[in-house]
Structure to design on (293 residues):
């Protein structure tokens, strides 16, 4: 069961350098043929500075920086019983290859809910505000993790 | 490639062009695991998935299905206009599922110098079982 005393806690910063190849790899894994994610020249023709990160790219730094396991361990929740309940991004500016984006996960809330089938679960809301190497806000993320009990 | 879309051309009720993805294969889960860094065996190991209560075996990453929705959105509205994109994961996507993404504009308004639309989005399988519900907001240019 999630440790409710952790609400408001902020965890170690995640810092991540964005590579053009990783943007292309994520687009290909999704099966998105949009050339703005795959080809720098095509992106420039569409008014971008370079291949922009796709809308769900911020999942990459979260997992590849292995920032989530320590948070989940600290919350005392069973990793194998965690499902992703909700995900939301607000976009302030594009993320491009070469950008170094940084954010600190913060526990915004923990609520116990009962599913339709009567099963109890904890809903843990994690928020991250991402900035780039110039200190500009690039995005805000809100993720809800569900621990099935 | 998303061609320019103008605020003037969008009305409440305008439908996003539907996108069909799949049928889902475990190979795509493996590729997505490598791309995203999410190596939870729930998505790639049928025996593991069954042991944790998924009788049909490995299920798709929710973020992969959200990625499909992102593909549908930015195939229609240029990525640079997207301001907010949020989803709720309503159901599990299984191997063999064909996922159709649809959307419909529910609001348009001008505020703070921006011309904003809100569009509801849904991802559902071939039986109509809903996997994702959500919405996005985009700030669109005016004609002229």
């Amino acid at each position: 069961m999630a440790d409710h005393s952790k609400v408001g806690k902020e965890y170690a910063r995640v810092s991540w350098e964005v590579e053009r190849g990783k943007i292309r790899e994520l687009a290909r894994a999704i099966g998105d043929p949009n050339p703005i994610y795959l080809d720098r020249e095509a992106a420039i023709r569409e008014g971008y500075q370079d291949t922009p990160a796709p809308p769900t790219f911020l999942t990459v730094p979260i997992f590849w920086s292995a920032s989530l396991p320590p948070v989940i361990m600290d919350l005392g929740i069973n990793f194998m019983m965690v499902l992703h309940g909700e995900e939301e991004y607000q976009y302030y500016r594009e993320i491009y290859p070469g950008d170094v984006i940084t954010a600190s996960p913060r526990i915004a809330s923990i609520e116990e809910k009962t599913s339709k089938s009567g099963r109890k679960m904890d809903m843990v809301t994690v928020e991250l505000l991402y900035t780039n190497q110039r200190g500009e806000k690039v995005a805000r993320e809100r993720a809800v993790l569900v621990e099935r009990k | 490639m998303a061609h320019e879309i103008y605020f003037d051309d969008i009305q409440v009720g305008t439908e996003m062009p539907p996108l069909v993805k799949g049928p889902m294969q475990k190979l795509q889960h493996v590729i997505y695991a490598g791309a995203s860094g999410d190596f939870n065996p729930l998505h790639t190991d049928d025996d593991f998935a069954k042991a944790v209560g998924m009788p049909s075996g490995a299920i798709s990453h929710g973020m992969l299905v959200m990625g499909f929705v992102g593909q549908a959105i930015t195939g229609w509205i240029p990525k640079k206009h997207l301001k907010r994109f949020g989803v709720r994961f309503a159901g599990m996507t299984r191997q063999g599922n064909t996922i159709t993404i649809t959307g419909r504009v529910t609001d348009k308004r001008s505020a703070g110098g921006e011309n904003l639309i809100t569009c509801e989005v849904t991802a559902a399988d071939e039986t109509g079982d809903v996997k994702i519900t959500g919405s996005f907001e985009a700030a669109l240019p005016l004609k002229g």
Notes: Strands of chain A lie at 14-17, 82-91, 100-103, 106-114, 120-131, 137-148. Residues 4-19+53-148 of chain A form a domain with the Thiol Ester Dehydrase; Chain A fold (CATH 3.10.129.10). The interface with chain B takes residues 22, 25-26, 28-32, 34-36, 42, 46-48, 52, 54-56, 59-60, 62-64, 80-81, 83-91, 94, 142 of chain A (CB under 8 Å).
